[in-house]
């Protein structure tokens, strides 16, 4: 998408808002499938938590994707979006047995990541096919909050607990049809990922009736010009060779599964915000926008860097600005960034805003969450309306009778 199109969308729908480019999502999906074209059975399960708008889910289903879910709500969204139950994998963490049973009753693939629930579920439902999430104790991820494969992680069953796991499977006679891992987001070192994969292959040898091996995801995308990213093509070549070798050893053609989220939607997303105030202090020029970490929390939560440009003045002289929000706490989107000269009323564009941006938005400070727009076949389509004050109050219960004057209370 170009700046002119984005500016027109901002004028049409107002700012702040999110815009998603369907063509970029499609091209990323094709890039990943092409990287693993040497695998007989490939399944890409889009990670719904990255961006769960039902129109985005429908686009993914249209592309031929499966769906990776982490909550019963995401499962139900996926079914509403047209995904067949068998194309949905449900990988919760720390949820109740009741929620897992509810998902199982809907016919989706269950993925269990702790021994306690594995034993409970296997004892009650030994015939239901179950995938097991393994923690390979391999560190990956660009931030401690998104590194989930290390030894102190709450995610997955430790490889050191494999004997216990096998005992549960033997005693319950469970049907284990898949093995899964997820090391974390922003994978840079392919060799580290391949090392973790070897651990998964070794674990898979303990189970004789597998249908698939799921390698998670976490592929890094570029956040600025010249930024490093996961070399998907190199990974595809190396992992395809090793996976096909393993299938030969195993004696069965298995499905190779991934759960891309950020890789598919991050670069397709743009967040647009209008500049309210340009403020000069003794050492800094602040550009304050009509948004905050209630709409885009990743820079504050993960230290994530989003490239910021002034689409109202794209060819202007560059100056240094710190772009901040309107929340009554520190909410800095970027410090001392070189941006084309900013005036009050200009629209700034934040790139890589497709993954974990709107889905992590909130009503903090009682602010409205922004609308979402899908750019598809050269046209802008509203896929979520801007919230209103009625949305803020919708589920609140006003118990004003509890706070009547003392005189009224005494009279009663």
Automatic annotation (TrEMBL):
Pfam families according to UniProt? Orn_Arg_deC_N, Orn_DAP_Arg_deC
Q: Which CDD domains does this entry report, sorted A to Z? A: PLPDE_III_DapDC
**In the record, which residues are listed under signal peptide?**
none
Orn/DAP/Arg decarboxylase 2 N-terminal domain segment(s) = 23-266
Chain positions found as N6-(pyridoxal phosphate)lysine: 49
Q: Sorted alphabetically, which keywords does the UniProt record give?
A: Amino-acid biosynthesis, Decarboxylase, Lyase, Lysine biosynthesis, Pyridoxal phosphate
InterPro entries under this entry? Ala_racemase/Decarboxylase_C (IPR009006), DAP_deCOOHase_LysA (IPR002986), De-COase2_C (IPR022643), De-COase2_N (IPR022644), De-COase2_pyr-phos_BS (IPR022653), Orn/DAP/Arg_de-COase (IPR000183), PLP-binding_barrel (IPR029066)
**Per its UniProt entry, what is the enzyme's top EC class, as one word?**
lyase
**Gene Ontology BP annotations:** lysine biosynthetic process via diaminopimelate
Query: Tell me, how does this one assemble?
Result: Homodimer.
Name of protein: Diaminopimelate decarboxylase
The organism of origin for this protein: Flagellimonas aquimarina
């Amino acid at each position: 998408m170009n700046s002119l199109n984005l500016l027109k969308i901002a004028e049409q729908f107002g700012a702040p808002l999110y815009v998603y480019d369907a063509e970029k999502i499609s091209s990323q999906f094709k890039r990943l499938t092409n990287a693993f074209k040497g695998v007989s059975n490939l399944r890409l399960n889009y990670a719904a938590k990255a961006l769960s708008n039902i129109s985005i889910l429908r686009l993914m289903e249209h592309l031929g994707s499966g769906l990776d879910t982490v909550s019963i709500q995401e499962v139900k969204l996926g079914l509403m979006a047209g995904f067949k139950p068998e194309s949905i994998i449900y990988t919760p963490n720390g949820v109740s047995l009741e929620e897992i049973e509810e998902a199982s009753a809907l016919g989706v693939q269950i993925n269990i990541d702790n021994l306690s629930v594995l034993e409970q579920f296997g004892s009650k439902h030994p015939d239901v096919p179950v995938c097991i999430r393994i923690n390979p104790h391999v560190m990956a991820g660009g931030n401690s909050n998104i590194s989930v494969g290390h030894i102190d992680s709450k995610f997955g069953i430790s490889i050191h607990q494999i004997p216990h796991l096998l005992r549960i499977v033997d005693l319950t006679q469970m049907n284990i049809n898949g093995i899964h891992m997820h090391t974390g987001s922003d994978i840079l070192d392919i060799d580290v990922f391949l090392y973790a994969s070897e651990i998964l292959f070794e674990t898979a040898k303990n189970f004789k009736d597998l249908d698939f091996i799921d390698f998670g995801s976490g592929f890094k995308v570029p956040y600025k010009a010249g930024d490093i990213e996961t070399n998907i093509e190199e990974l595809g070549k190396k992992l395809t060779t090793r996976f096909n070798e393993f299938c030969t050893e195993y004696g069965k053609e298995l499905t190779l599964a991934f759960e891309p989220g950020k890789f598919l939607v991050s670069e397709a997303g743009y967040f647009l915000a209008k500049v309210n105030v340009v403020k000069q202090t003794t050492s800094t020029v602040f550009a304050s926008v009509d948004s905050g970490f209630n709409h885009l929390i990743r820079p504050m939560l993960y230290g994530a860097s989003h490239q910021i440009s002034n689409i109202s003045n794209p060819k202007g002289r560059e100056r240094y600005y710190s772009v901040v929000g309107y929340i009554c706490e520190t909410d800095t989107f970027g410090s001392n960034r070189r941006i084309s000269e900013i005036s009050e009323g200009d629209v700034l564009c934040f790139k890589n805003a497709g993954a974990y941006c709107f889905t992590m938005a909130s009503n903090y400070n009682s602010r409205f969450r922004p609308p979402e727009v899908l750019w598809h076949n050269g046209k802008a389509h509203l896929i979520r309306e801007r919230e209103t004050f009625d949305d803020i109050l919708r589920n609140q219960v006003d118990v004003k009778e509890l706070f009547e004057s003392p005189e009224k209370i005494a009279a009663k």
